[in-house]
Amino acid sequence: MKRYVIGLLWLMCNTVSAEEVLAFANDAQRELYYQLAAELRCPQCQNQNIADSNAIVAVDMRQKTYQLVQQGQSRQQILQYMINRYGDFVHYQPPLNRVTIWLWLAPLLLLLGLLAVGLYRRRNEAAQTPDNLAGTPDELEQLIEKYRSKKP
Amino acid sequence: MRKLFFYAPLALFLLLALFLLSGLFSDPRERASATLNKSLPAFALADLMQPQHIWTAEQLKGETFLLNVWGTWCPTCNAELGYLTELRQQGVKIVGLYYELPRDPAFDAPFNLQTLQQDVSQKLAQHGDPYQFNILDLQRSLSLDLGVSGAPETFIIDAQGIIRLHHIGDINSQVWRSKLAPSYQQWSQP
């Protein structure tokens, strides 16, 4: 029994060591690599980042990113390298330009619209209430009288 | 004013419906290529069949041609070989960029050029050979520089070596007529 357990454990050790291990000169480079792998988008299997995807192009892009990180290139340089080849599409954080500005403006405009509607309605209500209430005490009196007189 | 508020949600809904409807007919793979209207990136890669010959971007200048990214492992590429061969017979110059698969040292046999050459010759004999020659992109370095996301993809490159069109997906008579032929004719005029 003991021998089987040890055998099993040994097998598990092997599967762990079969995983890809990348060496980095320092922690900052490791950090940068993982950050970029999470932020770069696979052009083949869309809606996956290159860290998640095993498409050929994602494997190549990971490898290229690793090379460029090792060469000491900055985050911006590596992003630009990929964008030059695969377009803005390849980065999960879109740049601010004439087309993408609506991503930020649309929710803001909706919020402003909602606020405008709310204000408009509130002002209307405020304008209407005094008129409606002006006659109320008298009307109430009349109603009370009416119901009182109905009672035997 | 009151009426306006009454119809606003309906108008918003219709706009949203239109937007989503247009999404049904759009191809998510269709996007502007980043390498369009740029020069063919510099490279030095061996010919697939005569590996002693090294092709460079400079050598490909002088005539408009189709650069077809393909591999024998890719079924869609094999399927378009027949139509591309027809195009070659009509006088279209087609150069192949052979997109070799990465190899996992744990599972795959090491790369062997002779096996690949045999494999390619067999496929081309079977479906037709549209290529003037094939450039072997073993590390997919030129493919990465071209912004290739997979195979098959096709570029139209003009006589000055400028990339004029980037098509993702296969080529058939319909795609050729509607998309590639107009561009090819435009750029192959002297």
Automatic annotation (TrEMBL), chain A:
TM regions (residue ranges): 101-120
Domain of life: Bacteria
Signal sequence coordinates: 1-18
Record bears the keyword Chaperone: no
InterPro entries: C-type_cytochrome_biogenesis, CcmH/CycL/Ccl2/NrfF_N, CcmH/CycL/NrfF/Ccl2_sf
Record key words, sorted: Cytochrome c-type biogenesis, Heme, Iron, Membrane, Metal-binding, Signal, Transmembrane, Transmembrane helix
Alphabetical list of Pfam families matching this protein: CcmH
Location of the CcmH/CycL/Ccl2/NrfF N-terminal domain: 8-132
Keyword Ribosomal protein (UniProt): no
Family per similarity comment: Belongs to the CcmH/CycL/Ccl2/NrfF family.
PANTHER family reported for this sequence: CYTOCHROME C-TYPE BIOGENESIS PROTEIN CCMH
Job description of the protein: Possible subunit of a heme lyase.
Name used for this protein in its record: Cytochrome c-type biogenesis protein
Organism the protein comes from: Rheinheimera maricola
TrEMBL record, chain B:
Domain of life: Bacteria
PROSITE patterns documented for this protein: THIOREDOXIN_1, THIOREDOXIN_2
Membrane-topology descriptor: Single-pass membrane protein
Disulfide bond found in the keyword field: yes
Residue ranges crossing the lipid bilayer per the database entry: none
Domain Thioredoxin: 34-185
Keyword Ribosomal protein: no
Compartments reported by the entry: Cell inner membrane
Gene3D superfamilies with a match to the protein in the record: Glutaredoxin
Keyword terms, alphabetized: Cytochrome c-type biogenesis, Disulfide bond, Redox-active center
Name of this protein: DsbE family thiol:disulfide interchange protein
Organism encoding this protein: Rheinheimera maricola
Lineage: Bacteria, Pseudomonadati, Pseudomonadota, Gammaproteobacteria, Chromatiales
